[in-house]
Structures are given as structure tokens and as C-alpha cells.
Amino acid sequence: MTPATTKPFGNNVTQCPHCGCHARTLKSDQITPTYREIRYACTNKACAHIFVADLSVVRTLVPSALPNPQVNIPLSNAAGAASTADNQNQHELFEAPVGAA
Ligand SMILES: [Zn+2]
Q1: Which residues contact 66 (CB under 8 A, 6 or more apart)?
Q2: Ligand 1 centre and the CA of 50: distance in Å?
Q3: What spacing in Å lies between the alpha carbon of 30 and ligand 1's midpoint?
Q4: Which residues fall inside 5 Å of ion ligand 1, going by CB?
Q5: HSE value, Cβ hemisphere, 13 Å, CA-based, for 15
Q6: Radius of gyration of the chain from Cα atoms?
Q7: Reported pTM
Q8: pLDDT (tens digit per residue) in 59-87
Q9: Nearest Cα to 40, choosing from 27, 55, 59?
Q10: How far is the CA of 7 from the centre of ligand 1 (A)?
């Protein structure tokens, strides 16, 4: 059995959210420098789901040597910094008093 952390289907394939089969890329459009939309088609003929997913640049691990001044991407201090921040946010959620708005 393949561990859950490995890439399941390769670079241009993802998993159909309905049947779990491979969905292949039909089309990909770069909308902004940090946002791309990808159209997928499920390869399971019994399902035939066609859907759009997106790909966003969320943070920088190593800054570009050729930075685009119009692009602002948050910088991570280290590879694990973002997940640590995420965990801290979750911790705050759990510490909020019940019923607090
Ligand atoms: Zn499917």
C-alpha cells in the first residue's frame, strides 16, 4: 500500500473528488503570477466528472534571485515555520471560550 504522503498519480493527474479515480489535466490557465486554474477530467467513464481546481503560491521557502516587484509572497523562516504557525492558530481556536463570537 502507498503511504498517504506520496504523490498518488504524478504531475498532471489528480484524484477525482467523487469516485477517487485518476483525473487528467484538460487545460491549465495562468490567471495571475501566483494563481493558476486547472481543468481536470475524470478517467473513469462511469463517473465522467469534469472540474476546475486551482494552484496558488502560498509562501516562499527560498527567495527568488530575480524578484518581481509586483509579486508579494509571504516568507517562511524555515521549512516547518508555516505548519508551526498553523498549529498555533488551531491552538487559539481551541482556547476560545465556548460561545465567544
Ligand atoms: Zn470520477
Answers
A1: none
A2: 8
A3: 25
A4: 16, 18-19, 21, 42, 44, 47, 49
A5: 7
A6: 18
A7: 0.62
A8: 999 999 999 999 999 999 765 544 444 54
A9: 27
A10: 18
For residue 60, the CA-to-ligand 1 centroid distance in Å is 33
Taking the centre of ligand 1 as the mean of its atom positions, its distance from the CA of residue 74, in whole angstroms, is 35
φ/ψ region of 22 (left if φ > 0, alpha if ψ in -120 to 50, else beta) reads beta
**Residue closest to 22 by CA, chosen among 52, 43, 51:** 43
C-alpha cell at 100: 465567544
| Mean pLDDT, range 41-47, rounded to an integer | 98
Q: Say if residues 50 and 40 touch (Cβ distance below 8 Å).
A: yes
Residue ranges of domains in the chain: 13-60+76-90
Closest CA to 52 of 17, 80, 85, 82: 17
What count of Cα atoms within 13 Å lies in the side-chain half-sphere of residue 13?
Answer: 11
